[in-house]
Write a structure and sequence with these properties.
By secondary structure, this protein is an alpha+beta fold. The protein has a single domain, classed as K homology (KH) domain (GMP Synthetase, Chain A, domain 3), CATH 3.30.300. 31% of the residues lie in helices and 36% in strands. Helix 1 crosses helix 2. The N and C termini lie far apart (36 Å).
């Protein structure tokens, strides 16, 4: 069995609270309106959409997507720790060309399965997909 790839990510947070990626780019400034929980939700949406982009390229379709997320933090019943206990995303996607139902459901399942942020959370996100204007139930 081949060895799976190992991806490593590094960030620093300076004394002012600004976050810096080891890859460079603009720092994420510490702002009172952006809590760590918001960043987790943003990471979840970005990761899911990146996974969708990857799966779409492999399937030979184009996607344009956006998304939002809602999370609830409270004490977990099993260990009494404060954590995200409910997470829901809404992901709006335009797929070209349109896929049949089985192809579309497979694409969305691969997008969900491929998001390592989602896979890292104890609370499993519920994803609400709206594709080409129609909610996929």
């Amino acid at each position: 069995m081949p060895t799976p790839p190992i991806l490593q990510f590094d960030i620093t947070v300076d004394p002012a609270g600004d976050a810096h990626s080891a890859l460079g780019g603009s720092p994420l400034p510490r702002e009172a309106e952006w809590w760590a929980e918001h960043l987790v939700l943003a990471g979840l949406v970005r990761c899911t959409l990146a996974s969708l982009d990857y799966s779409a390229r492999r399937a030979g379709v184009d996607v344009v997507s956006s998304g939002s997320a809602h999370g609830v933090v409270t004490k977990r019943a099993d260990d009494g720790l404060h954590a995200l206990v409910e997470i829901e995303t809404t992901l709006e996607v335009q797929v070209t060309p349109a896929l049949d139902d089985a192809g579309l459901r497979g694409l969305l399942a691969r997008a969900e399965h491929g998001c390592f942020v989602s896979n890292s959370l104890i609370a499993r996100p519920r994803h609400r997909w709206i594709v080409n204007g129609e909610e996929i139930v």
